What we know:
The structure is a single chain. The protein is built from 5 helices and no strands. By secondary structure, it is mainly alpha-helical. It has helices at about 10-40, 45-50, 55-80, 85, 90-119. It starts with 11 loop residues before the first helix and ends with a helix. The longest helix is centred in the middle third of the chain and has 29 residues, at about 55-80. The chain is elongated and about 55 Å long. About 5% of the residues are buried. It has a single domain, classed as Fumarate reductase/succinate dehydrogenase, transmembrane subunit (3 helical TM bundles of succinate and fumarate reductases, Up-down Bundle).
Amino acid sequence: MVTSVKSFRRTGLSDWLIQRVTALVLLAYFIVIAYHLLDSVDYTSWRLLFDQAWMKAFTLIATLSLAAHSWIGLWSVLTDYLTERLLGPKGNVIRPLCQLGVSLALVGYVGWAIVIVWS
């Protein structure tokens, strides 16, 4: 049992673990979607599927997993390639702006998904 929290900093191991767990969540979600696609493709069956609370919750979890997975992947790419070494002093300005843009987009996408699924 954890008795104290030393730090809330992310580490490479925690990023790796988050990406693996979110990948498994997304795999499970897409398997469920594929099964229902193969079962029937009419509007009524899709409506009945997404009217169930468990599917709404699963969709929300999958959406949050996609956002977390995307953020870690894009953060890694941005910090590897938008650097001062590769872009000069502009790299230290461009990288945070791109990270801000990505984070705002992901928050917007998650909010949009919540509105769509729960309305």
